[in-house]
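ok so heres the complex, two chains, lmk if somethin looks off
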Amino acid sequence: MDAAVSKARIARVIALLLTIGLAGTAASLFIQFAASDGVQVLDVVRLVLITLSTSWLAWGASQSIVGLFHRPQPPILSIARPTKRTAILVPVYNEDPAETFSRVLAMDRALVREGMSGLFDFAILSDTRDGEIAAMEELWFARLVTEARAKGRMFYRRRADNAGKKAGNIEDFITKHGGAYEFALILDADSLMSGETIVEMARRMEAEPKLGLLQTLPRIINARSGFGRGMQFAASFFSPVFARGIALLAGREGPFWGHNAMVRTKAFAASCGLPALRGQPPFGGPVLSHDYVEAALLARAGWLVRLDTDLGGSFEEGPDNLIEFAKRDRRWCQGNLQHARLIAAPGLSIWSRMVFVQGILAYLSSPIWAAFLILGLVAPYFAPPTDYFPQPYQLFPVFPDDQTSKAITLLVGIFGLLILPKLLIFIEAVITGRVKAFGGALRAGLSVIWEIATSSVLAPVMLLFQTRSVIQVMTGIDGGWPATSRGTSELMFADAWAATRWMVAIGAVTLLAAGYWAPAMMIWLVPVAVPMLAAPAIIWATARPMGGPIYLSGQELKPDPIVAERERILAVWRGETQSVIEDVPSVGEGAASHA
Amino acid sequence: MDSFDPLPQAPLAMPKQQIENKVTLRIVLSRFFALFVRDTSSVRREL
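and the predicted structre for the whole thing:
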C-alpha cells in the first residue's frame, strides 16, 4: 500500500477517535446537566444539537493536532527542470486590470529570471461584463505585452457570455486550447506566485505522472484593516498547521481550492466536465463550489490530488471588512449546500464524500448553534416543576443538585475546543522558532490573544450571517445586500448599519426577552447578544486601517521578492495612470468588438 | 481580439461527468413512506 495512503488512514482514525472522545465528553456533560430535572423531549433535541456542534468543533481541533505532528518533506524527484509547457490561467471578472496585470508582469519577470519563461504562457481569460472595464483591460494588456516583451506567449480573450462563471471560463479554455499545454496553473485575479514555486510545481507534475492536481497554500497579503490583517495573520500563522493536518488526512484525495493550483490538462479535461444539476437554483443549475467537486472527480478517476504545504511563494488577497467577507461567504454557503446533491454520486471515495459533508457542516453548524441557544432559552418553560418529595411518605425534602458547575465545564470545554488549537500552534511556533517571522514570541503572543478576542466577538455576528445564508439558500430566497458606498475603499458606518440593523434588532429583542422572562439566562446571553447589538460599530471599527505591533506577519516584515516586485510595478503604473487613460481614444470602443 | 495574438487552437474533449446522487433523499423518504403506509394498513386490516 502507498505510504501516503497508510499514513492518511492512521491519521483519520486518530482524528476520528479524538473527535468522538471530545464530542462524547461534551454530550455526557450535557446529559448530566439537562437530566437533573428529568429528561424532556427538548433535552433530547438539545443533546443532538450540542453533539453535532461539538463534533464539528472537535473535528477542526483534531485536524490541527494532527497537523502539529506532521512534517512533510519535499518529494525526491528524478528530473531537475520541467520540459513541458504550462498555461498560466488568469480568469478576470470586472477587476481593476492594472491591479491584476501588474501581478502577471511580476510573475513573468520572475519566470524570465528563472530562465523558464519559454515554457510558460499566460492566458488572461476575461469574463468581464462591464464595457468600460473591458476597454481598460485591452489597453492594459497591450502595455503588459509590450513591457514583458511577451508577444506570442501572453494571450487575452474575452467571452461573449459568462456561462458557467469561473468554472465555465476555465472549461472554455481547456476545450479550445488545453491540448497545447501539458499543465495549467489556475489562478484568481488576485493570485500572485513566485517564479521558483511555479517552476517547482511544473517539475513535480512532470516527475509524477499520476499527479493530477497540485494545490499550494496561499498566504493572504496586502491587508490594511484590522479585520483584513487579522485574517492575514491567521492565514500565515495558524493555517500552515491546519493545512498540514488536511494534507495528511486527505492522503491521495487532497483538496482543490479553486486557485493557486496546477492541473494536468488531459486529466482535468477527461475527469472534470461538470454538468448543470437538474432543477433550479439554489440546489439545481451550475455547480457553484466547483473546485471541491473537481478534486473529487480527479480522485474518482484515479488521479493523485495533493496539497504540498512545503511550497511557499503562493499569495492571494482577502476581503478587508466583514461585510465583503460575509458576501463571499454567502456564495460559498450556497455552493457548499448544493453538494448535498452530490454526496452519494457514484464512484466517489469515502474521503471525497466526507469533504462534501464537512463543507455542508461548516455552514449548518451556525443554525445548529442558533437553535441550541434558542432552545436553551425556552427549555425552562417546558421543564416540570421541581419535585422535592419524589418518594411517597417522604419526611424530608430532596433538593436537586446544583448543575451549574457542569454547565460551566461544558462552556469552558467548548471555548477550549475553539482556542486550544491556536494556543498549541503558538507553542509549536515558539519551539520551532517560527515566531521570529512574526516579530518574536511576545508580539506573536499578543497577536494570537488579540485574534482570539476579536474572533470571539465576531463569532455571534458571523453566526447570524451564516444562519441567514442557510435559511436563504434553503428557502430559495435571496435577501440581497444593500449597496455599499462607492468611491472610497473604506467601509462607511452607514453601510455597516444598513447591512446589520436586522442583527441589532435580534440582539435587542433577545436581551429584552431574556430580561423579562428568564433573567437568570442574561449572564449567558450577554457574550452572544452584545456583539449583535454592537455589530455595526464592530464591523466599522475593524474595517479601519490598523497598524502597530499586533498582527505583524512575515510578509509585512520582509515581503517576498515577488510581492515587492509587484508593488514596484503597480506604483509605476499608478503614477502614470492618468497619462495612459488620456491616450485611450474612447472607453467602450474595445468592448463593442465583443458584442 | 483581432489586435492580440490568438490562443493556440488545440481542442480537448471535456465529457460531462455523472455527479448527481443516484439515490436522493426524496426517493429514500418516498420508499420509507410507502413501506410505512403499507405496514400500518396491513396492521389496520388485521385489527
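quick notes: The radius of gyration of chain A is 26 Å. thats all i got rn
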